[in-house]
Design brief:
alpha/beta; Rossmann fold; six-stranded parallel β-sheet; 25% helix; globular
Length: 195
Amino acid sequence: MSSREKILARLHNNRPDPDQYPLPSIPPLGERTATRQKFEENLKALGGQVLEQQTWETLEQAIKRYFPHEKVICSAVPEFCGTIRVDELTSPQQADKVDVLVVRSPFGIAETGSIFLSEEELHSLNSVAHLTQHIVVLLSENDLVANMHVAYEQRAEFHHARYGVLMSGPSATADIQGVLIRGAQGVRTLSIWWE
């Protein structure tokens, strides 16, 4: 047995029993109330937008209004057809051709204006959320949480998903002179459609 293996074996054999020494409870941190206004403020601060619904406008009509030149509209939700279903995409190379992805997020975080996506929402083609040009996220105001602490504490998705991503607006980068470019290395826009 090498020295490394001996040290690791000693550590393994001498670790405390988790049942005998439970982890301490974490006190509530930060704001506990989530509001749509706070979510929208933080989303917009990070370059995201809300698709403002005009009178009697459907999601399909709003997408045509906001993205009039985009041709490949991929749907990952049952109530919206688009031009292609996410289940029809079998590789990241096919996902690269998507102009607009329509997906539902199980929750949003008001403090950061973030939305959560996992393999469940993306139908196991996780690359589609990063290779598409625009993402339209269906989100319910009832599914907002105040901050990351509350999300981790209350949302089961953090503990059950094999893959998860928090998106806060479109991709962004800034060069050494501090010029901010949005949509440089990923999605160009992230838009919320309130359900």
